[in-house]
Amino acid sequence: MSDIGVGLIGAGYIGHTIALAYRAVAATFPQAGRPRLVALADVNEATAAKAAERYGFARALGDWRALLADPAIDLVAIATPNHLHAEMAEAALAAGKHVHCEKPMAPSLAQAESMARRAGSAPGRTIVGYNYLHNPIVAAAREIIAGGEIGTPVHFRGTHNEDYMADPAVPFGWRCDRALAGAGALGDLGAHIVSMAHTLMGGIREVCGDLATMVTERPLPGGGMRRVENEDQAQFLVRFASGASGTIEASRVAQGQKMGLGFEITGSKGALVFDQTRLNELRLYRADQRRGRQGFTTILAGPEHPGYAAFCAGPGHQVGFNDLKVIEVARFLEAIAAGKSAYPDFAAALQFERVLDAVQRSAADRRWMDVATG
Ligand SMILES: NC(=O)c1ccc[n+]([C@@H]2O[C@H](COP(=O)([O-])OP(=O)(O)OC[C@H]3O[C@@H](n4cnc5c(N)ncnc54)[C@H](O)[C@@H]3O)[C@@H](O)[C@H]2O)c1
Fold it and tell me: Given Cys at both, which of 44, 78, 156, 301 links 280, Cβ 3.0 to 4.6 Å?
């Protein structure tokens, strides 16, 4: 395929991973094409200049609109705080670009719907940055479920717990500000495990949610305290369209949890267990083992699992967090080249946003909430 010009907006935490991914993809997935790193924009010009130099982008910009105006840019990756995604994505789509946007789509469902509408009528393709879905071993889990190896999935227990805000001394940042972030732990972490539940089990039909804020105010970097405007902890019951049930929890104050994304899927004939801190392993239980020999088998990721061999020919040698972003980028570039939708595009990711919105409404009303109709 022909070269594709890439512009990245935002050079913070995940901007780093995205920049590495666009650099690495030509070498790991040569069939996906060779991105040209045209420009990197950050509101902090010094950050933009340093990052452009470090990652090999030809130009550094302080203004993201200048990046959209550059005809050499075909694809815009958005790695800024949540409140900027809608404006940036819609402007990029209007300019005819493909858009790679970080999750969650936006602070409000209305904004996410607007993004999906705009994407529906624009020539550009879209993808939302749910990197954990691109893990080769997660693809194996999908295959195992689809092949009926654990029978009918009847229950999903999912978590995404971390402790990055467990210390009350962690300052107030954009993630605590409802206008900038939207939901708290639910939008930041819960979005990932909802995307996983949706991808492995199918759509979520109903939720019953509960939200809590443990650290109610935090120090401002310049001095003084500010009230935290969204939840530290979310837990909810789910009913899938398939009839399966489950529980999901997300926390940013879960002491000791550094990367507590995980799931347990119970089926009528077996079970699957995954823990992102051991992201190359999937534990499979089959109920048909003879008594006295029953137990979980640990499947190690290897070159048989699509995506893995791009990094290493040896099974069990392991891929890492940043590699999942490389796979995400490769899938996006392949979809663009094929003129097809990537997964999850804005339309697919909007379904996750609907779940997150329903959990918040459910918690506020203290009742079960139908995801589609309220
Ligand atoms: N997929 C993942 O695993 C993952 C992980 C972390 C964050 N995220 C998402 O990525 C997004 C960014 O999060 P982060 O942790 O990297 O945040 P961050 O605060 O570390 O970085 C954000 C960057 O955006 C820049 N920025 C702010 N306003 C801007 C503007 N108007 N124009 C250009 N640049 C601007 C900031 O200067 C900063 O460099 C969020 O939506 C977050 O939810 C996704």
Answer: 301
Q: Ligand 1: which residue has its CA nearest to atom 34?
A: 42
Verify that 26 and 57 share a domain, yes or no. yes
Q: What is the pLDDT of residue 12?
A: 98
- When pLDDT is averaged across residues 177-196 and rounded to a whole number, the result is 98
Judge if 120 and 148 occupy the same domain: no
Instruction: Give the length of the chain.
Output: 374
* 371 found inside a domain: no
Report the atom number in ligand 1 closest to the C-alpha of 130: 1
Q: Which domain holds residue 120?
A: 4-131
Instruction: Give a yes or no: residue 370 inside a domain.
Output: no
Classified as helix, coil or strand, 205 is: strand
User: Which of 131, 149, 170 is the last residue in one of the domains?
Assistant: 131
Which whole number is the average pLDDT over 299-322? 98
Cα–Cα nearest to 96, from 65, 77, 119, 78: 119
- CA-CA distance, 162 to 210, in Å (whole number)? 18
Beta bridge partners of 61: 41
Give me ligand 1 centre to Cα 103, in Å. 10
| pLDDT greater than 80 at residue 184 | yes
So what's the pLDDT on residue 374?
A: 86
The pLDDT score that the predictor gives to residue 2 is: 63
In this structure, the residues whose C-beta lies within 6 A of any atom of ligand 1 are 9-15, 41-44, 47, 64, 79-82, 84, 102-103, 129, 131, 188
Tokens of 314: 């040896």
Give the chain's largest Cα–Cα span.
67
- Tell me the best of 8, 9, 14, 76 to mutate to test the pocket of ligand 1, counting ligand atoms within 8 Å of each CB and taking the most: 14
